[in-house]
Design brief:
Length: 485
């Protein structure tokens, strides 16, 4: 039997077969391992397309800069970049961040069902939580822990940092201005500096804490030469430097009063601690006559009266200088003093002093003042702004609970009897300046009607709001009085 003879293949066919086998081998080496796990760090290190992060010389510790996700959760290193759209979680057992390819319809692990997934805060019961729960169940307030600091609803006011030369100069100028003001030296520059810085809650508090500073500011803001020109001509005060020969306050006196009132307003605005300090001073401050010596107190009113008088007191009937004295008061000064009073009225003690000193009558005097006849149309427009501010002071502090007003203090049905409309309408123009407290309601209605006729008033206007809220409080006070009877 003859042996089989081997056959040789053509050279071209062998070459084609070699290329095919090489392609299969390359495809197999590029495929990922079973399970979708990534290639080993050593294989990644050999790739020119993947940027690696290596903290050691061991290639096994390297990992790609851009996280390579799979269908299994893998640890995400802090310095790795995460592509968007992945499913990221925090492993609560290891504390490490993990990520994988996001599958929207993926079923939730049955062991995790029922657990909250939208909570980021876990409340851990303390050892004595059972005692706290018993206190709450019995309606008792919780006791603060031992050695806890005293509760302060307004928090601690810290001194501004003096990291820059400008901040250091500001602090130095502030304390220098306080010293100048208390000594009664050249106070104009000191007042300007304090007016600029008093809005800061720390410096505002420092102003309020010092009694002598507050006294000087109150005396300047309510200078006798402005409040009672007739008395100031015979009784000078350390805080009332100049008055003209005709009894009209000087320009310097008016400017100082305006600055002082602005400082008081800024000091107490949004600064409850500063207001509390002024309230502490008030029992002593309200009795001060702002006189340089006891012998010069004659004819001067104490601050419990002068601090709330917004327009000068009128001279005796028939005096030719009466209209000149009132018209000499610039609207900007009255506006600044109203702003200061509005801030001070947040104190219950000062608010009661305001009502006792006929403060509502002084506000009504501002509402009724007509500047168009004595100061011209331009001044009349400025006084209109003052009138609106006075109206809002009344609404915010006495008539609107939403604005923080304590209802029932004014109007008071027991001690605030109103005259009839006929009586109020019959009073002459001269009587409409002061002492019109028993016609408050009538004047409020007249104001609302006046603005409505002029096309300025109606619903939404301050005069309409003032009149309607006043009517509402009168009605509530009357109903309360009937219930008590």
């Amino acid at each position: 039997m003859s042996k089989p003879k081997p056959h040789s293949l053509p050279l071209s066919l062998l070459a084609l077969l070699g290329v095919a086998l090489a392609g299969v081998s390359a495809s197999a080496s590029a495929s990922p391992p079973a399970g979708g796990k990534p290639s080993s760090p050593s294989s990644l290190a050999n790739s020119d397309e993947v940027e690696l992060i290596c903290h050691t010389s061991d290639p096994a510790d390297c990992y790609p800069k851009i996280f390579q996700p799979t269908h299994e959760f893998q640890i995400v290193h802090p310095d790795q970049d995460l592509p968007t759209g992945l499913h990221v979680r925090l492993n609560i057992y290891t504390g490490q961040k993990e990520a994988k390819i996001n599958v929207p319809d993926e079923t939730v692990d049955p062991s995790l069902e029922g657990l909250p997934v939208d909570k980021s805060i876990v409340i851990v019961d303390s050892e004595d939580s059972s005692g706290s729960e018993n206190q709450q169940s019995q309606g008792q307030p919780l006791k603060p822990p031992k050695n806890a600091p005293a509760y302060d609803p307004h928090g601690k006011i810290k001194e501004p940092k003096k990291e820059t030369a400008e901040a250091q100069d500001e602090s130095s100028a502030f304390y220098k201005s306080l010293a100048i003001l208390k000594k009664g030296l050249d106070i104009d520059q000191a007042l300007e500096m304090l007016e600029e810085i008093s809005h800061d809650i720390y410096y505002g508090l420092k102003i309020a804490e010092d009694y002598d500073t507050i006294r000087e500011l109150f005396c300047l803001a309510n200078s006798p030469s402005i409040i009672s020109p007739s008395s100031s001509s015979s009784s000078s005060s350390s805080s009332s430097p100049e008055t003209s020969e005709a009894g009209v306050p000087s320009e310097k006196d008016l400017n100082r009063s305006h600055l002082a009132a602005s400082i008081i307003s800024s000091t107490v605005q949004n600064n409850p601690k500063a207001l509390a300090e002024i309230t502490k001073h008030w029992p002593t401050l309200q009795l001060d006559h702002c006189a340089k010596s006891k012998s010069k107190e004659a004819g001067l009113q104490p601050l419990q009266i002068s601090a709330f008088r917004l327009l000068p007191s009128l001279p005796p009937s028939g005096s030719p200088s009466g209209s000149d004295i009132i018209s000499s008061t610039p609207p900007s000064l009255t506006k600044a003093r109203i702003s200061a009073i509005s801030g001070l009225l947040k104190s219950p003690l000062i608010r009661q002093s305001f009502l006792s000193a006929d403060g509502m009558d002084h506000l009504l005097q501002v509402l009724l003042f007509d500047a168009s006849q004595s100061q011209g149309q331009g001044a009349a427009e400025e006084w209109e702004k003052v009138r609106r501010q006075a109206g809002h002071l009344i609404i915010d502090n006495f008539l609107d609970a939403d604005m923080g007003a304590v209802l029932g203090e004014w109007p008071d049905a027991t001690g605030d009897v109103q005259a009839s409309d006929k009586e109020c309408a019959s009073r002459g123009d001269g009587e409409k300046k002061e002492g019109q407290g028993d016609c408050w309601d009538w004047h409020a209605k007249q104001l609302a009607d006046k603005y409505k006729k002029e096309g300025k008033g109606g619903e939404g206007h301050w005069s309409w709001e003032l009149w309607n809220k006043l009517k509402e409080q009168r009605k509530n006070a009357s109903s309360k009085k009937k219930d008590e009877l």
